[in-house]
Amino acid sequence: MKKENFNQKLFLDQLGIDIENDNYKESVKKLHQLCIYNPFRTQQFVQVYINVWCVKILNMLDNKSFDIASSRIRALYMLIIYNKAFNRLITIYFDKVEQKKIFQTLGNYDRAVHLSMQSQYLYQKGQYDKVEKSVLQCFKEIKKLFKNKSQFNDGWFLIRKCLKNIRDKKKAEVLLKKILQNIVSY
Fold first, then answer.
1. Are 39 and 50 in contact (CB under 8 A)?
2. Which residues of 12-23 are buried (b: 16+ CB within 10 A; e: fewer)?
């Protein structure tokens, strides 16, 4: 598609339909195309995209579609560095779901993402001692991810997200050194 033929309104409408129909992969593709064809509005597109998905996930939680909501929130988590609406969504999500049931059904990658989200949730709740436990569990799952080269960048992204949830920066530094030593041993 040539840039001069690009219809932004049509793409935004289609993006909304994809989100409404819970078509995550197509919505990511459309977001990517919007950002390519109108790079000066990228930040705005991304914020709207995140906020609309947050509303969609909240509806899923309200309708007790926890498995689908869990999948979508984990996927979105891996795209976001910071977003207020998403941070509130994480709190609502963990307040509503039974974590043990969901956690038991997850593979390594999704477990690592879940534990990273959990550390953020606990940090937001002020439960700093539990944050460290969650981060350590997450690091164990991340070590498994590093065996797969295609998940290497995601592993580092999760480490970064986890470390920002450690209140005591000296402890965060110690944890980072531990994970680096473990990774070097691979």
1. no
2. eebbeebbeebe
Tokens at 106, concatenated: 């997850």
Residue with the two structure tokens 């926890």: 66
Each residue's pLDDT tens digit, 118-145 = 999 999 999 999 999 999 999 999 988 8
Angle at 81 between CA 19 and CA 24, to 5 degrees: 20
Residue type at 44 in one-letter notation: Q
Tokens of 107: 């593979």
Q: Which residues neighbour 150 within 8 Å (Cβ) at sequence distance 6 or greater? A: none
Q: Report how far Cα 117 is from the mean position of its chain's Cα atoms.
A: 7
Q: What is the pTM of this model?
A: 0.88
Find out whether 84 and 50 touch, Cβ atoms under 8 Å.
no
Most confident of 7-11, 135-139, 177-181: 135-139
| Chain mean position to CA 137 | 17
CB 32 within 8 A of CB 49: no
Q: What angle do CA 156, 159, 164 make, to 5 degrees?
A: 130
